[in-house]
Amino acid sequence: MTSTVPRPSPARPALTALRDRALRLAELVTTPLLPADYLDLIHPLRAGADLRGRIEAVHRETRDAATLVIRPGADWRPHLPGQWVRIGVEVDGVRQWRAYSLTSDLPRTDSCISITVKAIPGGRVSNHLVHRTQPGTLVHLDQATGEFVLPTPAPAKVLFVTAGSGITPVMGILRNRTDLSDVVLVHSAPAADDVVFGAELRALAAAGRLRLVEQHTDTAGLLDAAAIADLVPDLAERATWACGPVGLLEALEEHWAAAGLADRLHTERFRPTVLVPGEGGTVTFARSGTTLEADGSTPILDAAEEAGVLMPSGCRMGICFGCVLPLREGAVRDLRNGELTTAAPGDGVLVQTCISAAAGACDIDY
Amino acid sequence: MTALQKKPVNPIAHLSADDIELIGKELDEIRQGVIDGRGEADARYIRKVIDVHRKLELGSRAVLLASGFPPAWIVGTIGLSVAKILENMEIGHNILHGQWDWMRDPKIHSTTWEWDMASPAAQWKHSHNELHHTYTNVIGKDNDLGYGIMRVDEDQPWHPFHLGQPVWSFINACFFEYGIAAYDLELGAVIAKKQTKDPEFRARAKAVLRKIGKQVAKDYVAHPLLSGPNFVSTLAANFTANIVRNLWSNSVILCGHFPEGVETFEKKSIDGETRGEWYLRQMLGSANISGSKAMHILTGNLSHQIEHHLFPDLPSNRYAEIAPRIRDLFDRYGLNYHSAPLPKQVASAWHKIIRLSLPNGWLERTTPRNLPSQLVTLYKMTTGGPKVRRRLQRLLAA
Questions:
Q1: What is the dihedral of CA B380, B385, B388, B393, to 10 degrees?
Q2: What order of strands is seen across the sheet that includes strand A138-141?
Q3: Using an 8 Å Cβ cutoff, are A58 and A67 in contact?
Q4: Which cofactors are named for this entry (chain A) (predicted)?
């Protein structure tokens, strides 16, 4: 069998070439800035811009959860129900990135997307989004991604097990996958009022779209993986998707595996592993292929140089920023004030290596 | 000026080692206070300044499309000059210092920013942030002292060559951005050491030439062409705006370290320097400019040079707020907080340039009455050999 490389239509390369030339001319006029820097003043959501979104509305769901309706930039690609999006938002002037499940009701949202956020106690970003976000705010976006997606055609019988804000990707699915015929949803929340989308879920149940089992943990205690079999007798016949705290998901995985149903269970962990910063740790420089042990009082710069890494460096006292490198994952401590900086995968937080010590395992992009 | 260590009355002789460490501790606390309070209002500030700059530059360039019409030329040139000053001073200089890196905005970050200046950001960051800010006012280490082309210290022997110093200082001021580019390249030293073929130098020189090419193409080709029949007048406007910006930034920078009374330090005095001693050197080696809020913004808050040198990575909009506390610290420890209005500081700096262009003591001892005989002495020192110079210098200093 021969394969052919798909050929772009002839009009397109000419057009692209023309556009490239125009762009280069425009750059000649705007240098050292880019034409985009000026266009962003006028139209930050245009095609070709960095992907952003404008918050159009904030709807309160419960006392600590809210749905943000976001108009994404022109380059936003359609997502599948159940996927999540990384959103970059300025909290106290600092850009913070977090991932949230998309809850958009696709046919009814006027080309907007929505995410639903539950404020975590002490969570800087979630509390900001739920309690202090104003319509009109620009946020930064990545394209939607995620594997928590139902296949097409849909399985005949489906079970969702969710807890807390774990309902959000499932709500995205329930709103858009009208091809689901036999659905059971077991949802756990502290009380009836705390159920995010409570009214909508109960309405769906009343309309016969799903069987809803609510577990209110304030009165009934935590959801027990083993007890789900009692609530859902035909559990073995159902393809199951579960989203919630790590503890619940681990219990479910264990239980499903014991029942020989491991391949019927799909889980989504929506909160990153909790990072416990310690004193010192293993520092990995992925690109230069070096791994070293650094203690909590030695600047990463010094430790890396000791280990033979050719580090960028400058004043070595934290003022010149000649040594800044992206921390891909991990935690570092500012030796001057003890302040911690943490990074989750994808963050690439830039840190000054000359005044930062490892405070746990660190993965540095260098 | 004479290095602090060689002065007959050392202005820090009254400070004990403990005092110096206490000063350091207090400054660390002030620094931490600002860091703890950094937030949304600061982020809004820098974004606002960037926004104003972009709109002002865009508007001014639009007005200059009609630069053949004299009022448009005047308005456009003033607007563009102010825009360029804002871009270099409050925006570029401070972002490249990493003052806004804490916002984690990749578009306003010391590692990604590029500015409207002949010198590429990366090279400037090395010579400015690393060398100048680390070795501030240390003779032989801080090349900002005279940019390697000036006599900045009485201890440097006078040579007839230095007579031209005021002239080339002024030429350097007019074309300051190119002077900075050459200086960041260490062009003088490279030529002196015959290292112009060094591949590393060549790569850096190429980067500078590429940057200058783009800058020149923008101001002297692209925008004039866009103006059509007003090609020449737009070119003249852009040239004028660049000169205005250069003269302004040069003046501000002269005011920072060059006025009379600002201290310099001997090379060996910084061996084993503690954090407190480093702070003290920054305190004594910098001078402020007093004035209005607009003036502070147009100087990129380098009018708070003392505060900037103590905390080069704190957001510039916070310097004014901590200045009274810094001043109080100076007072309590009996140190001279050097601050004066812009014209006074500029005059003081130029007075020093002129004074040092002449043999030590010449300017101080010249009066209208002895002018003829002083001129004869100067003539002899200029035309005579080193021996004559040394003999006459002794007489002048006596």
A1: 80
A2: A94-101, A84-91, A138-141, A52-62, A65-72, A113-118
A3: yes
A4: FAD
Quick one: tokens of A348? 């690439």
Neighbouring CB atoms inside 10 A of B8's CB total: 5
Identical fold, A52-141 and A157-268: no
Q: Cβ contacts (< 8 Å) between A349 and chain B: which residues?
A: 104
Please give the share of chain B, as a percent, with pLDDT higher than 70.
99
* Minimal-distance CA residue of chain B relative to A315: B130
Rounded to whole angstroms, how far apart are CA atoms A327 and A301? 13
The per-residue pLDDT for range B56-87, each reduced to its tens digit, is: 999 999 999 999 999 999 999 999 999 999 99
d(CA A325, CA A63): 40
CATH architecture for the domain at A157-268: 3-Layer(aba) Sandwich (3.40)
**Phi, psi (5° rounding) for residue B311?**
-130, 70
Class of the domain covering A52-141 = mainly beta
Is the CB of residue A207 less than 8 Å away from at least one CB of chain B?
A: no
pTM, two decimals, is 0.89
Average pLDDT over residues B306-318: 97
Q: What residues pair up with A66 in beta bridges, in sequence order? A: A60, A117
Sign of the dihedral defined by the CA atoms of residues A326, A329, A334, A339, in that order = positive
Question: Smallest Cβ distance to A38: which of B58, B215, B313?
Answer: B58
Domain boundaries, chain A: 52-141, 157-268, 281-364
From B60, B110, B125, B120, select the one nearest B86 (Cα to Cα): B60
Q: What is the pLDDT of residues A254-281, one digit of tens each?
A: 999 999 999 999 998 765 444 445 688 9
pLDDT of residue A328: 93
pLDDT band for position A98 (cuts 50, 70, 90): confident
**Whole-angstrom Cα distance, residue A185 to residue A188?**
10
Compare CB distances from B129 to A29, A90, A319 and report the shortest one's residue. A319
Q: Are the Cβ atoms of B129 and A350 closer than 8 angstroms?
A: no
Which chain A positions have a beta carbon within 8 Å of B56's beta carbon? none
pLDDT for A247: 87
Q: Does the beta carbon of A33 lie under 8 angstroms from any beta carbon of chain B?
A: yes
Which whole-number Å values give the CA distances from A284 to A294, A300, A354, in the listed order?
Answer: 10, 11, 16
Task: With CB atoms and an 8 Å threshold, state whether B51 touches A317.
Answer: no
**Least confident among B185-189, B325-329, B368-372:** B185-189
Residue-range domain boundaries for chain B = 4-342, 365-397
Find out whether B209 and B184 touch, Cβ atoms under 8 Å: no
pLDDT tens-place string over residues A157-190: 999 999 999 999 999 999 999 999 999 999 999 9
Inter-chain contact A350–B101, Cβ cutoff 8 Å? yes
CA–CA gap between residue A132 and residue A138 (Å, rounded): 14
Contacts of A94 in chain B (CB under 8 A): 43, 102-104
| Whole-number Å distance between alpha carbons of A304 and A292 | 7
Task: Determine the distance in angstroms separating the CA of A144 from the nearest CA of chain B, rounded to an integer.
Answer: 21
Q: How many CA atoms lie within 13 A of A7 on its CB side?
A: 5
Determine whether the interchain pair A321/B42 forms a contact, defined as Cβ–Cβ distance below 8 Å: no
Q: Assign domain A281-364 to a CATH class.
A: alpha beta
Q: Are the beta carbons of B104 and A94 separated by less than 8 Å?
A: yes
Contacts of A335 in chain B (CB under 8 A): none
